[in-house]
Each structure stands twice: as C-alpha cells, then as structure tokens.
Amino acid sequence: MEQKKRKRRKKRTKKRSAISKVGLFFLILLLVLLLLGITVSAGWLWMNYSGQSRLSQKQEAVPELMQQAESEAESEMMLEAGSIRYHGKVYTYKKDILTFLFLGIDKNGEVKASSNLFKGGQADALFLAVLDPGEKKISVIGINRDTMASMNVYDKNGRYSGRQTAQIALSHAYGDGLEESCENSLDAVSNLFYGLPIHGYCALNMSVVSKLNDAVGGVDVVIPESANGLEKGWTTGAEVHLEGDAAYQFIHYRDTAQEQSAEARLERQKQYLKKFILQAKKAMKQDMTLPLQLYTQITPYMVTDVTADEAVYLAGQALSYNFGDDDFYFMTGTVKMGEKFEEFYPDETALYELVLDVFYEEAAD
User: Is the pTM of this model over 0.85?
Assistant: First the structure.
C-alpha cells in the first residue's frame, strides 16, 4: 500500500515538474519576444487600457450650469445634479465626455521656466477638444485669444492678488510658463464656460507645429486673404501643401495693425486644425505607434498633464470618431477697442446655448 502511494507521489511530482518546465519555457519565450520588440501591439494595447483607466478617474463631478429659468415657478422646481431647465426643456450633462484644453504659446524652442512671473508666455491659440463616446464624434471649440474673461492675477513676487477681467490669452502669462501658467489658463477657460470640467491640458510652444505637421506628412490648406503673399505662391484661394516652417507661419502670423486680426488668425487655425486631424488619422491608420512617437518627440516643447498612455488611448478613440465642419464651433460676440488692445466680448446667450449643444443632451420625457 505504501509502495503504491510513493508511485502516485512520484507521478504527481513528474507532472508538476513538466508543467513547471512548460511554464518556464513560455516565460522565457515571452521575454525574448519583448526584447525583440515583437509584442509592440500588445504593449500598445496595455497602454491603451492603462490610459482609459487613468482618464476614467479624472472625470469630475458634473457642473452646476447656471439656470436660465423662464419664470420663478420654473426656477423653484428641483432638478437632479447635472440637469438644467432652459426654455421649458430639461438638459442633462453628458457624464462620459472628455474635455481637453489646448494652448499654443507665443514662444519658440524648448519649454523653459520663466523667471518673470508676468512673462509666462501668452496663449495665442486656445481650443477645447471634446470627445463624445455616446455620439462617436469630436467637437472643437475655438476661443478668441482676446476674449475678456475673469482670471487669477499675481503681483511681481508671485503672491495672489485676486481676480481680474482681461484678455484670456494673458491668463497663461501669469505664472512660471509651466504647470502654474497652464492651471491658470484652465481655470479661466473653465470659469468662462460656466464651471465646465476640463480633464486635461496641453500647452505647446508654437514653433513645434512644424515638427507635428511634417510628422503626419504635411497638411493641405487653402490660402485665405489674411495670408495672401506671406510666402511664395500664397495667393488668395490657392491650395498649398504646408511643410516645415510654412505651417508655423500659416497659424501664427497676425497683423496687429489690422482690425480683428485675432479673428482672422483663428479662422486660419480652424482650417489648419481640421485638416491636420484628418491627415493625422490617415497617418495613424498606417502606423498605430505614431501617437507615442509624436508624444515623445514634442515633449521638450510641451507642458501637459496628459500622460503618454492617456495620449495613446485618446488617439485610438479619435480614429473611430467623426469630425466634420459642423463639429467645429466659434464663439460669437462683439469686438471693441480697449485702451491699447482689442477686446472680444462673447454673446452670453449664444455661449450658453453652445455649452448646451456640445456638453448636454435633452432629457427623455
């Protein structure tokens, strides 16, 4: 009897040993594949999953958009958090959307901290990019850099001095030119859009546009009147293929002697961004690692709280999302001349309805 037990134990030991050898073999094989770089797709999938998890944690509580009640009776009716009543209809905030602030800073070269807290660099381009998984679309909102908005201001020693209304481009200038400046801009934009949650920011020194442009194979644009004659062959209505510094020139040039030059530049930036997104989607279909390559390449010129894995996930999502002319929004308003510079005052009703259109949906009866 004891002899039979010893035989069974011996067989089990051999079986476990065989299993261990097989497991060890696959472990070694996996490590070899990793070292050879054969598991790029697996690595991309892992970053995609990790990025999705991080972003889901960033999604904040729903905003409390100011009620625009038509009567006192309406204003007293209780609504659940994230819902508002406007012109007799109830709207609910889309909790699964992700919103990001993109800033183009009027500086060249690599990002460096500013020793002067008043010269963190102005934001010459401001865009909100909204990913809506429910409708599978991307919406982009262009913000005039001269929009008058409430922002945090500081004295020359960096001490908080309260809030001031000024051109929103200046919100980035108050700070170190790095995270502090970006957070200040994010606060100003969120406040302008009625406390809208913004899940991340990305500030790029404008000169890096040329690198991004060339990385996706260049971008085709139609020359508007505001860019006529800036480069050889740039005549109004001509279609040109932007490469190198020409891309930077197209989106950055502004004739401050001309009235509403910020609006004209914003129109060019809108056209370029729309064409760039379409071109980037084509390039990414040919190489899924492109987002990570770009992220790594532009890191010295960028300040962001979006991690590499989050960028990979967002780029992957954007591939399957729709983006057309109807998904690009501009704020409407009035341009006035201030003491020294132009000031843009948004139409409050139009802005409110824009927020409803992009970030809310009509509640079911």
Answer: no
